[in-house]
C-alpha cells in the first residue's frame, strides 16, 4: 500500500489522516508528547457546518453557542442577532484529543518526535508522499524550500474567568489611531476571551496594544487577576505561494488556509482535505504531482481567497470613519435582515450568493 507521512497531529493533520487512512498507509509524526499541548492557542469556536463535520467524526459535545455579533468603532455600533445558534463553542483540548483517539486506530501516530529538515529530505525518498500539517512555521515547507507566508497577523489572546454569559461576539474596528488593528471579545460559559490582531508591519511595541486589553478589562469590571491563560500566535491571511510540489503537500495553517474574518476555518480545511484527497488519488493512479493540488484548491476556493484579499486591503487601508459608515449601513433594517437570513459564517462569497439567490441559511 502507498505510504504517506503527515507531519503534525493538530486538527488539520488528524482530519487529513482520518480521510486518507482508509485508502493509504498513513504515518503521523508530532513533536508534542501530548496532542492537547497548546491546543487552546487556536479558536474553539466552530460554525454550524464545521460543528456537524467534527461531531460526525468524534464523540464530542459543544460547550456553548454564540447567537449575536456586535461590531464597534468609536463612533458607531452595529448589532447582528440571530434567532438560532450561528456558532458553537468547543473545548479545543478535548476536540483535538477526541480526534486523536479516533485516528490512532486507523493510522500510526508517533508523539514526541521532532523531524529536522535533513531527516525530512531523507524520508521523502522513503515515503511516497509527505504532507505538512505543521502550522505557520512549517518544517516541511522550510525543508523543501517552499516560499514563506508573506502576510499574516500577530495575535494576542487572553481568557478570563467571569460571571458573564451573553453568548455574544464583539468585533472592534476602532484602529486605535493606527490602521491594521482589529480587536475582539467573546463571552460564553463564564469565560471572557479578549484578543487583538495587528499586521506584522505595524511599528508600535506590543505594550501599546495591551492598553486596549486593559480598557476592555475595565469595561467588563475585571482585572488581570481573573486571567486563566494568555498567549500569542500568528494567523496567515494570504496563502503560501506554493502549497504543493512533486511529492510534497501542505494543509491547514501550513498552507495559509485560514479565514481572515474568523482566524480559523475547520469547514474551510474540510474542503481543502477533500481536494487533497482527490489530488492524492491522481498522484498515485496517474503520476500527477502535487502541484495539481496547489492549483486545484486555489481555483475551487478562488472567490473566498479573493474576499480574503479584499478584506485584508480594507483592514490595512480604510480609515475608521469608513468602517463607521459601513456599520450605519448594517443598522439599516433591510440590510440587517438580509445579513441575518443569508449570512454564511464559512464563506463571505457564499453569503453574497445566498443574498442574490435569496437562499436562506436559517434553521
Question: How are the SSEs ordered, and which strands pair?
Answer:
Blueprint: E1 3-7, H1 11-20, E2 25-30, E3 45-47, H2 48-57, E4 64-66, E5 68-72, E6 77-81, E7 87-89, H3 92-103, E8 108-111, H4 117-126, E9 129-132, H5 139-143, E10 152-161, E11 168-172, E12 181-188, E13 191-199, H6 206-219, E14 227-236, E15 244-245, E16 248-250, H7 266-286, H8 291-300, H9 302-317, H10 320-330, H11 333-342, H12 348-357
Parallel strand pairs: 1-2, 1-9, 2-8, 5-11, 9-16
Antiparallel strand pairs: 3-7, 4-7, 5-6, 10-13, 10-14, 11-12, 12-13, 15-16
Helix pairs in contact: 1-3, 1-7, 2-7, 7-8, 11-12
Summarize the structure in short.
The chain is α/β, with parallel strands linked by helices. It has helices at 11-20, 48-57, 92-103, 117-126, 139-143, 206-219, 266-286, 291-300, 302-317, 320-330, 333-342, 348-357, and strands at residues 3-7, 25-30, 45-47, 64-66, 68-72, 77-81, 87-89, 108-111, 129-132, 152-161, 168-172, 181-188, 191-199, 227-236, 244-245, 248-250.
